[in-house]
Amino acid sequence: MKKIFTSVAVIAACAVGAFAQKNVDLGFEITNPAELSTHPNVAANGDFTFTIKISNSGTDAVAATDTILMWNRGYTILQESGGNLSLYWMPNIVTGLSIPAGQSYNYEHTVTKNSYIDLGNDDTLINYFWDNDTNYLLLEGYGWDNNGELFNDPGVDNSNPDGDGALTGNNTTGNRSYILGTPSSLKDLFANKAEALNVYPNPSNGSVNFKHTIAAATEVAVKVTDLVGRVVYTQNYGKQAAGEQAFKMDLTQLANGVYAIELTAGSQRATSKFTIKK
Q: Does the pLDDT at position 17 exceed 60?
């Protein structure tokens, strides 16, 4: 998925080649919220704080004059002029951090619900949290020095650090799921915790694939809901064998936007959010 505001990184990348690169191996880990931790719903104009552990496994230090760019995804909605909604990446540019080689820094990032950025042409980026639902955070990042020289970081494709798949290894985190309020579909949260569902591609043109490991042979079904919780698609895949199984959905009839998918397989439950963008 293409990230917005790529000009931020392009400006930095233009200076590459004039100075020696720092050997900085950045790593990012979400330490708060904990996986599947529960929190109250975020009130309108209220704050929610994420804690990201930024580690440096390289041989050179990150200086206060260096810059780290973190891309956050999971709580930012792009509202387009035509009314379409989609989940997008939000850049977070950080300076002033000193991280010696072999050490880490706990960075706190606070998001205000309903705060927004006007992109012009009636397009708006809105920070939002889903009440009584499972939310998630996905984070990627890289950095450069005060001369604009990208770090020599093994997890970064320096030719196009903001491109799809350009950040790998410890430069990208998996989805961290956390629960706000009391989801109506979670009758017994502790007896039946929701697992993460692997949905791809994301965003999709409407042809959606997903994989999940079935614990024991059982009936498998899915439902898809829109942002306000309306069920827009259901499908029963019948009895499936134990092990990793792959499934497909044809959702080309749905409008562009953000949707949630829930898979049930016996006592198992797995969820994810995905975007349709044609």
A: no
The structure tokens listed for 60 are: 């050179």
Range of the domain at 89: 7-180
Residue at 165 is within a domain:
yes
Lowest model confidence (mean pLDDT) among 81-90, 110-119, 201-210: 81-90
**In this predicted model, what pLDDT tens digit does every residue of 228-275 receive, in sequence order?**
667 788 888 888 998 999 999 999 988 888 888 888 887 788 888 888
Cis omega before residue 201 (within 30°)?
Answer: yes
φ and ψ at 68, to 5 degrees? -120, 130
Domain shared by 206 and 131, yes or no = no
How far is the C-alpha of 148 from the C-alpha of 79, rounded, in Å?
32
Contact 265, 93 (CB under 8 A): no
Q: Are residues 263 and 141 in the same domain?
A: no
C-alpha distances in Å from residue 164, one per residue of 52, 118, 159, 256, 259: 22, 25, 12, 20, 21
Helix residue ranges, H only, 26-82: none
Question: The domain spanning residue 222 has which CATH number?
Answer: 2.60.40.3080
Q: What would the DSSP string read from start to end of 142-188?
A: EEE-TTSPBP--TTB-TT-TTSTT-B-GGGB---EEEEES--TT-SS
Q: Inform me whether the pLDDT recorded for 14 exceeds 50.
A: no
Distance in angstroms (rounded) separating the CA atoms of residues 40 and 131: 9
DSSP-assigned beta bridge partners for residue 108? 51
Which H/E stretch holds residue 234?
A: strand 231-240
Pairing of strands 268-276, 195-196: parallel
Mean pLDDT of the chain: 84
Whether this model's pTM surpasses 0.70: no
Q: For the chain, how many structural domains are there in total?
A: 2
pLDDT range class, residue 184, cuts 50, 70, 90 = low
Same domain, 28 and 84: yes
